[in-house]
Every structure is written in C-alpha cells, then in structure tokens.
Amino acid sequence: MNFETSIASDNDLLEPRDADRTKRNRNRIILAVVIAIAAIAAAYFFFGGSGASDGAAGADKQSQAQTVTVVAPGRETIARSISATGTLAARRDIPVGVVGEGGQVLRVFVDEGDWVQQGQVLASIERSVQSQQIIGQEAQINAARADLQLAQNELDRAMQLVSRGFISKADVDRKTATRDSARARVGIAEAQLKELRARTARLDIRAPVGGYILERNVEPGQTVTQGSGTLFRMAQGGELELQAQLGEAELAALSVGAPATVTPVGTDQQFTGTIWQIAPTINAQSRQGIARVSLPFSPALKPGGFASVQIKAGAVTAAILPESAIQNDRDGSFVYIVDKSNKVKRRNVKTGIVTQKGIAISEGLDGTERVVLFAGGFLNPDETVTPKLAKSVAPEAAR
C-alpha cells in the first residue's frame, strides 16, 4: 500500500459543511490583502508619486500622438506668368478697294499669300473711254496753245506800231488781254488733262503699303465700283498679333513690352512676341479687355486662327506649397501649421500662381512656419501631433 495514499488530508477529515466555511474564510482573507495593497499603491500615487505619474502620463500621451510630415516652405522669387487665349490677326489690317469710278476688271496680278510693294498694281480696270477722253483733251491743249501763239504775235506787232502812232494805247491793252486769256485757256486745258490722267491712273488698284496679301475678293470680268467693298486685305509689313482676352485684374498687372510666348492651336510651335498695346477699355458684357501681342511673320501663324499665350508679368516673392498641403472649405483656402507646442493650428491663406514646384501663397504665410504636408483632412485644431520635418517634396509626390 502506497504511503502517500495512506495519509488523509485535513480537509478529508473535516465534514463537508466545515470545509465550505474554511474556503470562504480563505477567500475573504485574500480579498482583504488585495484591497490593502491597492490602497497602499493609491496612497503612494496620490501623495508621493504624483509628479512622476504626471510625467509618465504626458509621455504616454505624446507617444500616442500621430506623426505628421511638415515642411518649412521658406520664400522664393518666382516669375509671374499669365495664361490667356485669343485670336490671331494682322497687326495693321489694311483693306483695299476701288478708289476711282470703277469699271470692269481686266486683270488681277496678285493672289492670297503674295508679298507686294507699296504702289504695286494689284488689279487693273478697263479704261477705253478714259483713254479717248485723254486724247481729246490733249487736242484741246494744242488748240489753246495755237491761239496763245497767235495772240502773242499780234501783241508783238502792235507794240512795234504804237511807238509810231499807228495804233493807240487802248488797242495794245486789248491785244494784251487777248494774249493773257489765251494763256489761261492753255493752263485750264493742261489741268483738265492732268485730272483725266489721274482719274485713269486710279483705275489701277494699287497697294497703299507694302505687305502680305491676306484676302483676294475680285476676279477678272467683275464690275466694281466704290460700293463694291474690300477687294483685297493686307497685313502691313506682314506683321501679325495675338489679341489676348484678359480680365481686369490681369490687364492691370501687365505693361507694354512684356514678353510672351504664343502657341497656335493644333501645333507645338511656339512664337516669341511682346505686348505692344493694352486696350484702354473693358467690354461691359464680358468684363474683359484685349492685350495685343506683336508677332513676326510666319506661315504657321494664320490670321483668324486661335492660339494660347503665356505672358510674363514680373516676379513675386512668396512661399510655395504642394497641393496636398492646402485645404479648402466654405471659408476659403487654409493650411494646418504645427506650433512650438506641437499643436495643430489652422491658418487661412490666399493662393496665387501655380508653378512647377507648387502653388504660391500670396497671403497668410511668411515661410518660417511648419506646415502639415499630408493628411491635413484628418487633423483637428489644437490636436497634439509629432511633427516630422520633410527635407524636400517633389510636386509629383505631393499629389
């Protein structure tokens, strides 16, 4: 028989009722000990260890704060650029029409896309009637000159006879008047001939200036008059322009001479020009005005076409932030900054121009702040965070 099994425990010697009472007493003792230990720990925490516990709680709270990436943007000087669209046109659009009385067009000497010199004949009009009138007027001049010569000869003879007393002084005066009248008729006839020749010359439609032919609206055989409208349109000197449509604020930021880059629609070609005129008025309906950008001639620049333009409007100094750092609500644009206590603060800002590096902040930041870069939508004002400074942010990474 095993010795261990032969020894009975004390509990086995007790009756069941006494065993339950003993177990309850033991549990009470254990509970009392636990309560006493808890009371001692609470007293120590309250009286002796409150400073240490506060520090521990603060450290624990700080350890639980979310980590946010912040950036100190600084301030940069950036070139301000204004984007716009507009229509290509001739800088000086010269309409050419009928100057004289008109008639039937015999020949047209130029076509669209031709270069012409000042005074060059563009088209000629039939002039058979005018030619006959010139011939008749030339005959009138010859007859008037013959009369003048006869009157002059008679006057010369009279002057020789008056000294001998054969002709009176009155006769000499009459012959002098006759000679002067004949001379005047010659002058009138010559003036009329010049007028006829000038009218005939106006039947040639000539280029008033040198330049580039944009339109041709006449064909041989066509009858034209002064009411026929524009027969040719020219770009004086071939100079072109872009008529850029801009708002009032944008126009106010521009000045004559500002450089611009023009890109016609449908092409990747870029053309460099300058603003040569800013409209003095604003359209009352669209609230826009026109800035005229002068351009050199190029076959790729077609008047009437559409183009975009980037105009350099000086430089500004501002903080630049990526798009991810800027929030928006009904009160406008804002960012979250982290103060010296690592608490989040809202800062209202005004955005400016968009650059390759980000968006310029024209108002609200001096560049020294620690601005929350990402996840601003998950933060609340006065929230404690753990800031992590970003050295640099690429524009692509911020999107």
TrEMBL record:
PANTHER family: HLYD FAMILY OF SECRETION PROTEINS (PTHR30469:SF15), MULTIDRUG RESISTANCE PROTEIN MDTA (PTHR30469). Residues 103-233 form the CzcB-like barrel-sandwich hybrid domain. Residues 134-199 form a coiled coil. Residues 242-313 form the CusB-like beta-barrel domain. Keywords: Coiled coil, Membrane, Transmembrane, Transmembrane helix. Residues 319-372 form the Multidrug resistance protein MdtA-like C-terminal permuted SH3 domain. It holds the Pfam family Beta-barrel_RND_2. This is Efflux RND transporter periplasmic adaptor subunit. It comes from Sphingorhabdus buctiana. Belongs to the membrane fusion protein (MFP) (TC 8.A.1) family. The chain crosses the membrane at residues 29-47. It comes from the Bacteria. InterPro entries: Beta-barrel_RND_2, BSH_CzcB-like, MdtA-like_C, RND_pump_MFP.
